[in-house]
């Protein structure tokens, strides 16, 4: 008797259209409604170049067109609406003009087969899109600011365009699920440590010169070096140190530099006359001897550096040039990030991201010997290029386009 009643109930539901069965494309009616709701206000700012297709979908609710739009929307969300091929071409042109510039593009693969399977399984559109939604608080804040200013209708088009461009840049950042990260915002000349959406450390930085730019990328912090030695990169040795040394025999002494066979301070000490300086004056490639500045109170790296290993040999560090932090535009480094308050950064990271005590660290600090401290809790470091930023007080900040990325990055729509 119970089985008969159940059969009757299911039949009645089917006859009344209450069972949401997928169509030939895998769409359930509830998914179509949800997707159209997302598209109505372009919830994730990813319609971009597909507005004409959206109009067709809105009018017809054709499942094939809707599948095509969902795939495009997801791809725009995952990989931005910036014209990537044109941007890469512009970057190559700048490098040919001897600009040292790098902007990492973290492209994600959008699996169309998986999306279709998710549709057929009845998963919500929000769940399908979720893996591609940037988790950085900057994405949500810029998106909200953009919508608010659009609705008010009194903001200049150029400002709206600038905000939108930065929304797209956040999409291009390294996909990240950690709620804790350090963000170096290059055009703002500022670094923040952000934990669970809150700023816990905030200070000024000096970034790379306009022709020796701090690269845009993301890597995990791995080590802190207390009392670092400065290992002069071969490129700087060739193009700065050796030319000056050839002109001034006392240059090494003035700059507190020594020459050794490698970057080990225990390796044999060499004199300038022991090596062929002229052969490595300018140009590119490795130099078979190394210039080192040993740890000291006057070391160019200061007393501490923070290593997030990368292909660009870029890191955060202390600096002797404290006077630069009084300037509004701070593009003076060879690409590394100089910290305004390195001691504050050191204490916070030691306390929250290592197993080393602050007392032990202070002993290392006072020893003037080089010590490496491992990071034991994950902290990604992202060097970003955001010319608009919404601060903790909810105010929009706008910065100069110091590296011309606003100029050469074009939207596809």
UniProtKB/TrEMBL annotation:
Keywords: Cell shape, Cell wall biogenesis/degradation, Peptidoglycan synthesis, Transferase. The active site is at residues 317, 336. Pfam families: YkuD (PF03734). Pathway: Cell wall biogenesis; peptidoglycan biosynthesis. GO terms for molecular function: carboxypeptidase activity; transferase activity. CDD domains: YkuD_like. InterPro entries: LD-transpeptidase_YkuD-like, LD_TPept_cat_dom, Transpep_catalytic_dom. SUPFAM superfamilies: L,D-transpeptidase catalytic domain-like (SSF141523). Residues 180-361 form the L,D-TPase catalytic domain. The keyword Cell wall biogenesis/degradation applies. One of its GO terms (biological process) is cell wall organization. The keyword Membrane does not apply. PANTHER family: BLR7131 PROTEIN (PTHR41533:SF2), L,D-TRANSPEPTIDASE HI_1667-RELATED (PTHR41533). Belongs to the YkuD family. This is L,D-transpeptidase family protein.
